[in-house]
Amino acid sequence: MRKNVTGYMFLLPWLIGFLCLAVGPIMASLYLSFTDYNLLERPVWSGWNNYRNIFTKDGSFTHSLGLTFKYVLLSVPLRLVFALAIAMVLNKGLKMLGIYRTIYYIPSLLGGSVAIAEVWKAIFAGNGIFNRFLSTFNIHAPDWISNPFYLIYSIIALSVWQFGSSMVIFLAGLKQIPNEIYEASNVDGVGKLRQFFQITLPLLSPVLFFNLVMNIISSFQVFTPGVVIGDGRGGPLQSTLFYALYLYQQGFSYFNMGYASALAWIMLVIIGIFTMVVFGTQKYWVFYGDEKGGKK
User: Fold this and answer.
1) How confident is the model at residue 72 (pLDDT cuts 50, 70, 90)?
2) Were 286 and a residue from 24, 41, 230, 282 both cysteine, which residue would form a disulfide, CB within 3.0 to 4.6 Å?
3) What is 58-285's CATH number, 1.20.210.10, 1.10.3720.10, 2.60.40.10, 3.10.105.10?
4) Do 201 and 208 form a contact (C-beta atoms < 8 A)?
5) Domain ranges of the chain
6) 104 in Cβ contact with 166 (< 8 Å)
7) DSSP string, 35-95
């Protein structure tokens, strides 16, 4: 213990922050999820009432959850496809690679901001830049923001545009694949498409697995586009009432903090289930290089 005390002292600031700013609030929210709490008065224990009301009486819960599922199922695959495609292009030994990498990464830094959401809202409005561009080709596009059917797809496009962080990780993974493998396959007459599915994807599968898990977790927590593009109320006909936005409304607009805490824990369980499912399937498609196939 005497030998390790220096290390523990260096860890102490992080441990204090972790216990006070993470573990403490998490445990507090678990307790509050079983109470009737309006932020102004002391919480009153109500047992399972919040959870019972969520699953049996709350139509907005099912709507926001279904909308979030749709967002995750569409945005995550598209973002990964775009990220991998751009990473493969950048991996061709382009000059000024650092500049291109920075340019493509910038949307990931700015895309979650309120300012970018406002810009996106202006671009895809009925008289926005995107529709004016399409009109030059005599294409009459709808109002992507006011139309509740199309609004979700404009937000998905914003999510796909933020592929930079996944792209950088894919690019790092591609750099680790030995070029000798591709040279040997060229000698054997293997085509580019076959190389991609039999060499690139298997050797890149651990990186793909990591990006998939992180993108699923972050996509379930989508919030800012629903607030800004949906004018803070979930858009027309609640077309942008994502789960995180509905949780926020319950906690800070309606002061139902106990109810919001229950919603938060339900989302935690849902994300955990999705993550466990992905982890459970990795033995079938993730190749770590220390065996002939699958997970070690």
Assistant:
1) very high
2) 282
3) 1.10.3720.10
4) yes
5) 58-285
6) no
7) EE--SSS--EE-TTHHHHHHHHH-HHHHHHHHHHHHHHHHHHHHHHHHHHHHHHHHTTT-T
Locate 249 and state its tokens. Answer: 């409304």
pTM listed for this prediction: 0.87
Per-residue tokens: 14: 């992080």
CB 241 within 8 A of CB 288: no
Residue written as token pair 């569409």: 74
Q: Is residue 173 a contact partner of residue 207, using CB atoms and an 8 Å limit?
A: yes
**The two three-digit tokens of residue 86, written as one number:** 């751009």
Tell me if 145 sits within 8 A of 131, measured CB to CB.
Answer: no
DSSP for residue 237: G
Structure tokens belonging to residue 100: 């291109």
Q: What is the tens place of the pLDDT at every residue in 281-295?
A: 998 999 886 554 444
Average pLDDT over residues 246-267: 95
Judge contact between 185 and 195, C-beta under 8 A: yes
Q: How far apart are CA 259 and CA 257, in angstroms?
A: 5
Count of positions (residues) in the chain: 296
